[in-house]
Design a protein that fits this description.
The structure holds two protein chains of two kinds. Helix content of chain A is 10%, strand content 41%. Chain A is mainly β. In chain A, strand 7 and strand 8 form a beta hairpin. Chain A is globular, with a radius of gyration of 16 Å. By secondary structure, chain B is of the alpha/beta class. Chain B is 35% helix and 17% strand. In chain B, the strands form two sheets. Chain B has a nine-stranded mixed β-sheet with strand order 3-2-4-7-1-8-11-10-9, with helices on both faces. The two termini of chain B are 22 Å apart. The chains are: A mainly beta, B alpha/beta. The interface between A and B is large, with 37 and 36 residues.
Chain lengths: 140, 419
């Protein structure tokens, strides 16, 4: 299936992530881009979308270092003595997206700054014999 | 913004005690406690035959207690069968939505009297389970896999507020200190202790065990210590509201029948509701809640009041940062200026704008689906001048506001009351 033929669904977006591609749906009528994907442009009500790969570059808009994590992150070994960072990233193309922030000192959140330049990374986790890929970010 | 087609009043409000009540009390027990407490506050009495419908606010009995379909169950327990009964869900704003829908239903002329309830029994699950259930009120497709917890989402918002306005952890600590001072005066609250009480008992415990006594000179030192661990930076344990079991009940009546119940009704002056994208990354501003601003705009417009007309308010302090942001979103203070007012003591019980005299979610407790209705209980008490212990504000309260936020801010209900 060619890229233009993939449906504008959550599954397609996640499939792209597993191929290590951060894809947006871009409105051909007004130019708005959506990450994660949206089929309906809520800026101009168009459904005239195309897939566009994002650069993955952006800046930290907001973040936290979490010591009491979700079961998924606890399973990955994070916790009180090994916190992890959740972040909201403002992508260079405009949209914001959530992702784990890696390559930083999570135990010293004061050393991490809003506005810091980051780039996308694709975090692979083995869970019960299957590999899942989640979007993450790391400092440039 | 239209006006209500006929006036609606609160004629009684009550609640169960808030606390970790499971297994001694479950949802049906908590609800009946709240109903009886509310019935006791209707001046001329109220009976099931007087009530036309039962609106139940509840977030997630399905996941907390393996029980859905609460509406008819709650109605039956207080003798309302076979009247209309149903449940409303909007995360922590669930009973705020139930309240608003009851107001609209009475104003429409369909019903004259509605019992609005809010119930939640959270401690049936261990803390990790509670955290996981609460996380379903955020975006489970893209925030949750990135590691978002509820404290984590509010901590993320706090980081943006700190960065933009220079807000500090001490600013947040002042919110917690104030709300615990208030909760100490509320016999229905889960934690009826001030933060200096917690500090004193910690010191006593260390002394008793022969350990080295910490040299905390005030609550701030205590709150910055390892006794108050970080949950999600910059938020620590005492920045977070509680995991609570509880219920609240509010009776609303149409102006046509209000005289049957009381000569001193508390009128609904305005109601508003707003929404926002579920995921933080889909919002334009991470330092305020668009749903709060929209709900407030509608409620102010309907009531004809302005922020300066509000004398006392109950706001949704699920985390300390949320109280700061609420004070700004409700128009009480300019963006970035609320912390200065808090520092000056303006939001204390004896200040110019008392906030969360009940103790707030921080100290009174936060049974999420019950919180919106529980705000009304404090409104009822403060406006009637019957708040217990030393909690009653020292002036006659003519106008009060309740702000009920759902999840990480995707739903908000604002209600303005007047005498």
């Amino acid at each position: 299936m060619s890229e233009s033929e993939r449906e504008f669904t959550i599954k397609s977006y996640i499939d792209y992530l597993s191929e290590k591609k951060l894809m947006s749906s871009k409105c051909k009528d007004c130019g708005a881009s959506y990450v994660p994907v949206r089929k309906l442009c809520t800026k101009c009500n168009s459904v005239n979308m195309e897939w566009v790969e994002m650069s993955g570059k952006g800046k930290i808009a907001a973040f936290t270092s979490i010591t009491v994590g979700t079961p998924f992150f606890v399973e990955k070994g994070y916790g009180r003595t090994k916190p992890y960072c959740f972040s909201v990233i403002k992508l260079d193309e405009g949209p914001m997206i959530s992702g784990q922030l890696i390559g930083v000192d999570e135990s010293k959140p004061d050393t991490i700054n809003i506005g810091m330049q980051v780039k996308a990374t694709f975090i692979e986790t083995e869970i019960r014999g299957e590999t899942r890929v989640d979007l993450g970010f790391e400092p440039v | 913004m239209g006006k209500l087609a006929r006036k609606v009043a609160m004629i009684g409000a009550g609640m169960s005690t808030f606390g970790a009540h499971f297994p001694h009390k479950r949802i049906p027990d908590l609800w009946v406690d709240a109903w009886l407490d509310a019935v006791s506050r209707v001046d001329n009495g109220i009976e099931p035959k007087d009530v036309d419908a039962c609106y139940v606010g509840n977030y997630s009995s399905d996941l907390f207690n393996h029980q859905g379909h609460l509406g008819p169950q709650m109605a039956n327990l207080v003798g309302l069968t076979p009247k209309p009964a149903g449940r409303f869900e909007g995360a922590c704003a669930s009973s705020g939505i139930a309240l608003r829908q009851a107001i609209l239903a009475i104003a429409s002329g369909v019903h004259d009297v509605i019992a609005v309830s809010g119930v939640e029994c959270m401690t049936e699950l261990p803390t990790t389970g509670v955290t996981d259930v609460l996380a379903t009120a955020s975006d489970s497709l893209f925030e949750y896999p990135a590691g978002a917890t509820f404290p984590g989402l509010y901590a993320t918002l706090a980081s943006a507020h700190f960065n933009k306005y220079g807000t500090t952890v001490e600013d947040l600590m002042r919110v917690a200190i104030k709300n615990h001072e208030n909760g100490k005066e509320n016999p229905y609250a889960q934690m009826q202790r001030s933060i200096s009480d917690f500090m004193a008992s910690k010191i006593a415990k260390i002394e008793k065990s022969g350990g080295e006594v910490p040299d905390w000179k005030d609550e701030f030192d205590y709150l910055k210590s390892s006794s108050n661990p970080i949950i999600a930076s910059p938020l620590r344990l005492f920045d977070c509201s509680l995991i609570t079991d509880g219920a609240a009940c509010v009776f609303l009546a149409a102006e046509d029948v209000v005289k049957n119940y009381t000569d001193t009704p508390i009128w609904i002056a305005g109601t508003g509701q707003g929404s926002a994208a579920l995921a933080l990354h889909d919002r334009e501003d991470l330092t305020s809640f668009i749903a709060s601003k929209e709900a407030a705009r509608q409620a102010y417009e309907m009531s004809g009041f302005k922020p300066k007309d509000i004398q006392v308010a109950e706001v949704h302090d699920c985390f300390t940062i949320a109280e700061v942001v609420a004070l700004e979103d409700l128009g009480f203070y300019e963006k970035g200026k609320a912390v200065e007012a808090i520092k000056n003591g303006e939001t204390k019980r004896d200040g110019s704008l008392p906030i969360n005299t009940s103790g707030g979610l921080k100290s009174k407790g936060h049974p999420v689906g019950a919180t919106g209705a529980a705000f009304c209980v404090e409104v009822f008490k403060q406006m009637r001048g019957i708040a217990e212990r030393n909690r009653q504000v020292k002036f006659d309260v003519e106008r009060m506001l309740a702000h009920n936020l759902g999840g990480s801010g995707a739903t908000c209900v604002v209600t303005i009351f007047e005498k």
